Amino acid sequence: MAFRKAAKGTALVGSGALAALYGLSQFSEYRRNQARLAHVEAAEQVQMTHQDELPSRQAQLATLKSTEEFDILVIGGGATGSGCALDAVTRNLKTALVERNDFSSGTSSRSTKLIHGGVRYLQKAIMKFDYEQYMMVKEALHERSNLLDIAPHLSAPLPIMLPVYKWWQLPYYWLGIKMYDLVAGSQCLKSSYVLSKTKALELFPMLKKDKLVGAIVYYDGQHNDARMNLAIALTAARYGAAIANYTEVVHLLKKTDPQTGRKRVCGARCRDQITGQEFDVRAKCVINATGPFTDSVRKMDDQRNPNICQPSAGVHIVIPGYYSPDNMGLLDPATSDGRVIFFLPWEKMTIAGTTDTPTDVTAHPIPMEEDINFILTEVRNYLSPDVEVRRGDVLAAWSGIRPLVTDPSSKDTQSICRNHIVNISESGLVTIAGGKWTTYRSMAEETLDAAVKEHKLSGGPSQTVGLMLEGAKDWSPTMYIRLVQDYGLEIEVAQHLASTYGGRAFEVAKMAQVTGKRWPIVGKRLVSEFPYIESEVLYAVKEYACTTIDVIARRTRLGFLNVQAADEALPRIVEIMGKQLRWSEQKKRVMCSVAEELAAAKQFLYHEMGYKARSEQLTNMSEIALTPSEVDRYKKRFHKFDKENKGFITTVDVQQVLESISIQIDENTLHEILNEVDLNKNGQVELNEFLQLMSAVQKGQVSDSRLAILMKTVEESLEQREPVSVDRSGGGV
Fold it and tell me: Would you say the pTM of this structure is higher than 0.70?
């Protein structure tokens, strides 16, 4: 009864404010819908040829070198840069794009994976009567709807729960969420609703029950960010844009304008990072879309240009999927330091984040241990005490640099711009900076409008609203069934291929090797617990993957989901890529190439994906916090393997014990298992190292240790095989 009264009171409190907002929202919605209808019609009339076969990277580089002059050269292959390239090429502008690393290698692959308008931005807009911020949310909600439409295989609506622990918060949050629905207008994904405490716990059983009043559920979008970025870039390539990753801009090219006598940017000197070869790419207009590296390109234009980027680091962690329901996220609107934390299901795991701390600009941001622990602490505050949130459950962690910017044309150069900025320098360099993932398309449209006007290009209006992205055209929710029926793929693998490649999944399936088993017929997995298969590595090369990191981080998301699983998959990925890219022909010694690839990928996992932070939970300095009885129990377990009382065990010792109970484990796998615990890397696990491991397991610093689980299982098996003593059998005389 109390809950019903609160809900009724909430409705009465909010009705006046909602009515006040309704008129403004509906008028804006009418204007937006009229523009959208016109744009969709224009998108359907894109006259450019859509290539069924992607040009190879070598062919793209040849086009960059041989073309006399492009209309547009975009620097940066993130979401915004790729969006600019797609917008330009579909306006019939001759377009080029270069990226010094891989597509989506920076911030665009390290987001919260949400496509959203920003609930907290709307809260600020209402509290401060800020029309500009309101319109920013309105634009983002329109772009959210468009992105869900043009890439349905890579994105989907996601319900997000906002738990309420104080009665007075119920009307406050309900009003804010309902306003969020109203601002979205006809593009509202699904209407938000209020839940009782009982229903909230039914849908999200991991929630902390104590003092829970109820919850509010609203809807936003979720996507596979790196694959979405890649889809935008590949779509641009299919429409004729010359795009090349691992192509660095060395410096900008300039020429004197005969009319004004001023130097104007007319292209860039580029370097192929794979071969080291340098070449010029000339263009009427150069667009700087380099995210956190905005200032480095601006200073290539003019060393006197002030810095406008104020980078902020956002750390996310990945924990097992059992921490959250499969189809419900969680929002913590007010953490201990005032930030917002999301707790979301993604790729059958759970993402938690983000932090927001000032940082330096770097191409290799590293998640810090204090940030990981901050997120874990906040997660514990919202989950039931029955759910033990352990540090050892962090399977991966990453840091992304958000490029907050100040407007160089503003009088107050110290104030951070809440939205994005488009700036044109005296030499004609067009810079797009700031903004958010969701609004990449509208940012690109605004940038190209400014570029066309400034450089008097012949491009028409933007054609990208409603323009389907790579893989979207032939996708359907039941497409995976055809993959199972036609190719004999596992259901989980077929669902993964359909949601990753859309209509292009059939091309990946055709490349899959026969397993030699009764089922599945094709599709050898890279690692057993994830649905990634070997043919994806082959297809990744067609999608311009040049390194092993490209495959584990962006073509698949294995490195973002589980660093240990990614590490185990590396040798096979390197082997497949090495044959496909003919690394042996590029370097004199094959093993040198393989060793370099393995080392680079391991460094990436170790530093950028949180493997270092994870492995440091067990170090030589780890404290052994065990009781005497626990020490005795674990010593007894250890000596079942160390039968000669050497004080250490090797793979040979473990193999002998396993053979005695008829268990077979591959020697390489066994070496990997021991290596996880071998702190001093001397090829053996000493008793002290084993006790440190068990202490860390008990404290929750380490989880899923294969050696700990293996030794416990073997001990139990050996005890079951021991002969029953005479006195226990009831025999004797």
Answer: yes
